[in-house]
Amino acid sequence: MHMLVTGGTGYIGSHCVLELLQSNHTVTVISNLVNSATDYKGQPLSLKRIESFTNKKVNFKKVDLLDLQELEKTFKSENFDAVLHFASLKSVGESCREPLKYYYSNIVGSLNLISVCKKYNVKNLIFSSSVTVYGTSTHCLLKEDDAIGEKITNPYGQTKYMLEKMFKDVAKSDKDWNIICLRYSILVGAHPSGIIGEDQKCVPNNLVPNIIHVIKGKIPYLTIFGNDFNTFDGTCVRDYIHVTDVARANLCALNRIIEEKNIGFEIYNIGMGKGYSVLEVVKAMENASGKKIPLKIMPHRVGDVEYLCCDPTLAAKNLKWSTQFNLEEMCRDVINWQQKNPHGYVNEDHENLKTG
Amino acid sequence: MHMLVTGGTGYIGSHCVLELLQSNHTVTVISNLVNSATDYKGQPLSLKRIESFTNKKVNFKKVDLLDLQELEKTFKSENFDAVLHFASLKSVGESCREPLKYYYSNIVGSLNLISVCKKYNVKNLIFSSSVTVYGTSTHCLLKEDDAIGEKITNPYGQTKYMLEKMFKDVAKSDKDWNIICLRYSILVGAHPSGIIGEDQKCVPNNLVPNIIHVIKGKIPYLTIFGNDFNTFDGTCVRDYIHVTDVARANLCALNRIIEEKNIGFEIYNIGMGKGYSVLEVVKAMENASGKKIPLKIMPHRVGDVEYLCCDPTLAAKNLKWSTQFNLEEMCRDVINWQQKNPHGYVNEDHENLKTG
């Protein structure tokens, strides 16, 4: 089957493209490339690596979702069976400084996508959402029907929440739609081969990318905000998941849409269903890297909650999906990616240019 | 001062334009005219009436908020001090059937507006929101800091909710913004002169427009959904407000922005703060029209709550605003408008054409 993958050059998208190719799907990727490294011909490096790893071709088009005309051309020239929608701006901090940029790019871009899907009758869509839609809820294990929206602290999270609502309304208005929203917990890891991973360009705001920064010597120590939470070691507990497990969840969702049909609108948590404390993650990263990570404890921040984990039971039941990687493997693979690609994708290109 | 009024040809917008002119503001109106009657030259009939009533000019431009280029031209050619943003699709039923149309028109249109405001440094905005953002909350009296978003039952309501969130994030990102969201309760009435009012084109889904339909003989009876609610007469209680009071609230909000400065982002309920039951409204409309309104009681609908009223205390305090019209006057004025304009604005135009 022929899948359109938006944002298929990015961190999660590229891992999903790899899995799709290995499952013998035809894949077209669109991206505006704003956060993706390319070679001198403008070809995304992540896809080049995937092609040589799988020995299969990816059809790539540089298309910005805000450019409705270009988007339409893509749909006119190909017959897609389903769309996997990863394209999104994703920096929490930037979204607070430039909310309009995020609302345009994520909301208007996605409205354009779904409008064109409707026009060309491609009514199977998988959307990358996030557990951030639960806001600062502190249930033991967040479930899909828990309240969302309230207390979301940034425009990035708002765009995920709003898009879920919009997609739900669209599916409700027309029974032909099949839309699955996957709410990911915190992504860690890289493909075990080390050929693709997260090519972080900006200052990281998640735990593991920050630890990587310390390991690389870019910052002298890891700042931990609060060791006085009501958890077993005093640091916050969060739900982490391997990026390949997330990619596999997308394929499972795709299979459900293809096999079941008429599912309307569904939402699934994609997480481990158990949490790890900040100190546990630090320890696992120390083990994986063989390096000691200096720490600095600061007072805990307003709004941070001690425990945020999501329950993946529904995904296990309906999508026949479960995680295959544990925390050690997440850390192993992210370290492997970093060691093989200390400067992300771009470095390889420089070397290619030098030797080519 | 020079005010830009989006949707200034419509029901609420036109009443606000009238008040602005009477307060000696210069007014530019933009509208895509999709729901507004015009003369053979394409001039909106509501504004023509306002001009002859006030003996003042309104600067009108046909601009769709989705047309960014035209919108920019408007800002380039004029220096606005503030924007009053009424333009919105508003049919609850249609929004459920065509959610994408509503998300485009209301969300993308408003994002375009605020982007252009930012570009041309017009950072004073008053936004027409609705008590619908409270969803089906059943507090005694809804207050501005009560939970919103949860249980909104239709895309129309979602667009109001989402825009409030977006505007809040925009104001938070840049201290120069002054944005006031006014959450209106259910609008009734028309200007006491009878020159402007609601020119309803589609099937009404509110109580008073439905009663008007019965009075006009377009439907044989008024359907009441449920007389077994836990209220004094068994029918639902809602908060109603005269459209001129809403227009005045906009002027009060404008004064606050002009006088206070640096208010950031504020929200105010604009309602009576007390409710009337369906049967009380029917009785008031019977008194105003002198006609008996036949009723048919049906089982109550899923999701309807017995009591929805909002507390306008904060608006009274900060905006120095309070209602001037009671239910009897709302009914008197809507009947007056209907009697003088049985076919809305269009009829007058037909007559003009005939006699002109």
Automatic annotation (TrEMBL), chains A, B:
The taxonomic lineage of its organism, from the top, reads: Eukaryota, Metazoa, Ecdysozoa, Nematoda, Chromadorea
Q: Which residues form the NAD-dependent epimerase/dehydratase domain?
A: 3-271
By its UniProt entry, which SUPFAM superfamilies does this protein fall under?
A: NAD(P)-binding Rossmann-fold domains
Q: Which UniProt keywords apply?
A: Carbohydrate metabolism, Galactose metabolism, Isomerase, NAD
Listed cofactors: NAD(+)
- Name the UniProt record assigns to this protein: UDP-glucose 4-epimerase
The UniProt entry's sequence similarity note says:
Belongs to the NAD(P)-dependent epimerase/dehydratase family.
Transmembrane annotation, as ranges:
none
Q: How does it assemble?
A: Homodimer.
Task: Record the organism.
Answer: Panagrolaimus davidi
MF terms in GO: UDP-glucose 4-epimerase activity; UDP-N-acetylglucosamine 4-epimerase activity
Q: Which pathway is recorded for this entry?
A: Carbohydrate metabolism; galactose metabolism
Mind naming one GO cellular-component term on file for this protein?
cytosol
Look up the EC number in the record and give it.
5.1.3.2
Q: Name one GO biological process term.
A: galactose catabolic process via UDP-galactose, Leloir pathway
